[in-house]
């Protein structure tokens, strides 16, 4: 079992509520990709904890032997509605935003800074 790093107050969606940019229409520069990378790095490098509402690797490796990192756009109610308005799906958003390529680049460029091993990315 892996500790889910899913903190509702810090979710990074393809369609941020500020409306300035989306993951497929970068009107706001590199947002929301910058926020997604920060979320991932916090999930990897923050202090270990078993608290689901705090980003970080698991503290109890017997209870949570896998460090699970969600490296794709997350979804809340706002993002689901916005995706429908854009005639898109989560899979289509991932494809159109090239998030998989960006995550591979993150691993290659910053992987040596990861303070804990990742089991599932």
| Helix and strand element order | EHEHHH
Biggest sheet strand order reads 1-2
Helix fraction bin: 25-40%
Overall strand count? 2
Q: What gap, in angstroms, lies between the N and C termini?
A: 14 Å
DSSP helical segment count: 4
Which regions are unreliable across 5 or more consecutive residues at pLDDT < 50? none
What's the oligomerization state? single chain
Report Rg: 15 Å
Approximately what portion of the residues adopt beta-strand conformation? Answer: under 5%
Structural class: mainly alpha
Note the overall shape.
globular
Mean pLDDT: 86
Largest sheet: 2 strands, parallel
Question: Could you name the key traits of this structure?
Answer:
121 residues; mainly alpha; two-stranded parallel ribbon; 4 helices
Describe the protein in words.
- This protein has helices spanning 33-45, 77-85, 90-97, 99-110, and strands at residues 2-3, 66-67.
- With 121 residues, it is mainly alpha-helical.
- Strands 1-2 form a two-stranded parallel ribbon.
- The chain is globular.
Strand and helix map with partners:
Layout: E1 2-3, H1 33-45, E2 66-67, H2 77-85, H3 90-97, H4 99-110
Parallel strand pairs: 1-2
């Amino acid at each position: 079992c892996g500790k889910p790093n899913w903190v509702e107050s810090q979710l990074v969606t393809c369609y941020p509520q500020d409306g300035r940019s989306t993951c497929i229409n970068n009107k706001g520069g590199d947002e929301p990709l910058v926020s997604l990378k920060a979320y991932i790095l916090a999930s990897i490098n923050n202090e270990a904890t078993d608290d689901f509402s705090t980003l970080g690797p698991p503290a109890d490796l017997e209870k949570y032997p896998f460090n699970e990192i969600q490296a794709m756009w997350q979804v809340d109610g706002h993002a689901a509605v916005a995706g429908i308005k854009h005639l898109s799906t989560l899979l289509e958003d991932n494809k159109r935003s090239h998030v998989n390529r960006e995550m591979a680049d993150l691993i290659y460029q910053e992987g040596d800074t990861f303070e804990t091993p990742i089991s599932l990315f």
